[in-house]
Amino acid sequence: MKPFLLLATRAENHAADAEYRSFLRFGGLAGSELHRIRLEEGPMPELELADYSGIFLGGSPFNSSDPEEAKTGVQQRVERELDALLDRVVPEDFPFLGACYGVGTLGRHQGAVVDTTYAEPIGTVQITVSDDGAADPLLAALPSSFAAYVGHKEACAALPRGAVLLASSATCPVQMFRVGSNVYATQFHPELDVEALVGRISTYRHAGYFPPEQAEEYMERARATVVDQPEAILRSFVMRYARD
Predict the structure, then answer these.
(1) What GO terms fall under cellular component here (predicted)?
(2) How many Å is the maximal CA-CA distance in the chain?
(3) Domain residues for 100?
(4) Which secondary structure element, helix H or strand E, spans residue 121, and what is its range?
(5) How far is CA 222 from CA 10, 44, 112, 205, 225, in A?
């Protein structure tokens, strides 16, 4: 099987490694089947799409909607590189799944309105699958409503033109969409289980997602939840697109 590719941007090694392990676990992949590139460490190398079965874009501390003057040089470089990659991925309809940061990245590339209107605090929300989502191969095996973990400062306030809405929540109308037949983005995190979320809360307690003194409270709330459906999206993506 040709490997999948994970594009990552988390500077903290423990958070980056935990994310990689989550994609391996829920994608049902061996280490040799998921190639990781940490974009925050250096420029994206030249990529041949034909070398991969598909591409994952992990979550990020970056926000696509931040003013340009507020973005670091690293963030600006990463955004340019991702835009250039999507310039190839979208026309070729190459398998792509962006988690959380994927909504802002793919949405902005496709002309969506991405801003802070529908930000959601770290926690659990109920996702509602649209009729188009119920017919989509990545969601077809999931119930019409399921719990998922979120935590984001920006979101799509309006879909990109031509995109298909696959899932929503009461507090964020665009939770998952598709461009073409094979290019996806989720606002929620299909790669997170409860312990991974607790780890994220610890890592990003001073990142502005919540008052830092409330970190333990957020962890306890997370441990009281049951979220076991979204991970099936990753496995479905791998099963659908894995190729020799």
Answers:
(1) cytosol
(2) 49
(3) 4-241
(4) strand 120-129
(5) 21, 34, 31, 14, 5
Residue spans of alpha helices (H) in the chain: 13-27, 73-92, 101-109, 131-134, 194-203, 215-223, 231-241
Q: What is the pTM of this model?
A: 0.95
Sheet arrangement for strand 172-179: 34-38, 4-8, 55-57, 96-99, 183-186, 172-179, 164-169, 120-129, 145-152
**pLDDT recorded at residue 36:** 98
pLDDT tens, position by position, 182-209: 999 999 999 998 888 888 888 888 888 8
Picking from 102, 74, 64, the residue whose alpha carbon sits closest to that of residue 179 is 102
Yes or no: say if 227 and 149 are a contact pair by the CB < 8 Å rule.
Answer: yes
Q: What's the number of domains the chain is made of?
A: 1
CATH number at 69 reads 3.40.50.880
- Where does residue 141 rank: exposed (0-12), middle (13-18), buried (19+ CB within 10 A)? exposed
Q: Render pLDDT for 113-154 as a digit per residue (tens, 0 to 9).
A: 999 999 998 999 999 999 999 999 999 989 999 999 999 999
Q: Transcribe 140-205 into DSSP letters.
A: TTS-SEEEEEEEES-EEEEPPTT-EEEEEETTEEEEEEEETTTEEEESS-TT--HHHHHHHHHHTT
Give the distance from CA 121 to its chain's centroid: 16
